[in-house]
Amino acid sequence: MLLLPVLIDWAMQPLGVIIVYQSLLSLAATACAVGAALCGIRDFAVTRRLARMTSAPAHELVEKLSGRQTVLITGATGFIGSRLAASLTGAGHQVIALVRNPAKAETLPPPVTLITSLDQLASDTRIDAIVNLAGEPIGNGLWTDAKRAKILSSRIDMTGEVVKLIARLERKPAVLVSGSAIGWYGLWADQVLTESAKSHACFSHELCEAWEKAARPAEELAVRVAYLRIGLVLGTEGGFITRMLTPFEFGLGGPLGTGRQWMSWIERDDLIRLIAYVIATPELAGPVNATAPIPVTNAKFTEELGRRLHRPAVFRIPGGLLRRIGGGFADELLLGGQRVLPNKALSRGFVFRHETLRSAFEAIL
């Protein structure tokens, strides 16, 4: 402590100021270098892990579709849509992909018919099925008023355009598989939710209800409509699981809040198979839960992920902290949850390849 006044006095001299300034720059540069190195190690670890992930042959996922079908996909460059497009084209079906950003179209495997507006389709275009997945991502930012408005309008407007297209087509598609999410049910704690369950009011329900309502007029046009209430999608090329890998790679993963909230999940290839199954099954209409048969709590999910990655999963993030940072986003997406079962799909004979989380992780990790 006796040295402190001497150091201050020395630092106030012109030469001392220069030396201190240079020292600070050196420390900053060192910190940046360390940070860059850590980020490099992290990215290298995640890249290696992702490189080891494998997927089933795409064409096998849509084997339930007979003949050569023409399928229009909105949201075709997204995490789900791109895999669906690859599966359909790989099996010899024709895909019409609505692409808002042409630069992303490079990710789609040929042959795909690309359009940037549904108005580009003539009224005599043959379309056997429409899969409507387009919408602003909900998990990539806090739910500000502007973000909520964008999330809502992107889904409602696009679905309205799809219905208008159906109305002017001379030959109507047999089915519209329209996106929704398990957020429709709201937050129900431990209660088991099937397609006949009621809802609790929250933004997620408001969003999904408006999305489904926008597709409902297609029913009046004699088109079978299935509202696919999708859970958390696990896959190898995106989705929330890839964002979780970074903390887990460093052994910093763990439950969110109490960890008792339910996570109703589905492996992405099972979701693609389910979409094809819905298209091919005339009896499947109305809400269809797209989740695996065995949901898990957040604590169980993080424990299983840590086990698969050979990392601890003990760094619990306090719920209060998440709420202060994320508000409604944290309450509904991180700390809330739904215990959803896919009763309709199971009752119509759909068989999941990955019923358990362990099976899904073994396939993708």
Description:
With 365 residues, this protein is an alpha/beta fold. The protein has 12 helices and 13 strands. It has 2 domains: 16-50; 53-364, Rossmann fold, CATH 3.40.50. The termini are far apart.
The helix/strand order is HHEHEEEHEEHEEHEEHEEHHHEHH
Number of strands: 13
Largest sheet, order of strands side by side? Answer: 3-2-1-4-5-7-11
Query: What general form does the structure show?
Result: globular
- Give the N-terminus to C-terminus distance in angstroms: 54 Å
The helix/strand class is alpha/beta
CATH architecture of the largest domain: 3-Layer(aba) Sandwich
Uncertain parts: 1-39, 50-54
Helix content, binned percent: 40-55%
Q: What is the overall number of helices?
A: 12
The CATH superfamily title of the largest domain: NAD(P)-binding Rossmann-like Domain
Major sheet characteristics: 7 strands, parallel
Highest CATH level, the class of the largest domain: Alpha Beta
CATH domain topology of the largest domain: Rossmann fold
Radius of gyration: 24 Å
Strand content: 5-15%
Task: Describe the secondary structure blueprint for this structure.
Elements: H1 3-12, H2 14-52, E1 70-74, H3 81-90, E2 94-98, E3 112-115, E4 129-132, H4 145-168, E5 175-181, E6 192-193, H5 203-215, E7 224-230, E8 232-234, H6 240-249, E9 262-263, E10 265-267, H7 268-280, E11 286-290, E12 296-297, H8 298-309, H9 319-326, H10 328-335, E13 339-340, H11 343-347, H12 357-364
Parallel strand pairs: 1-2, 1-4, 2-3, 4-5, 5-7, 6-13, 7-11, 8-10
Antiparallel strand pairs: 9-12
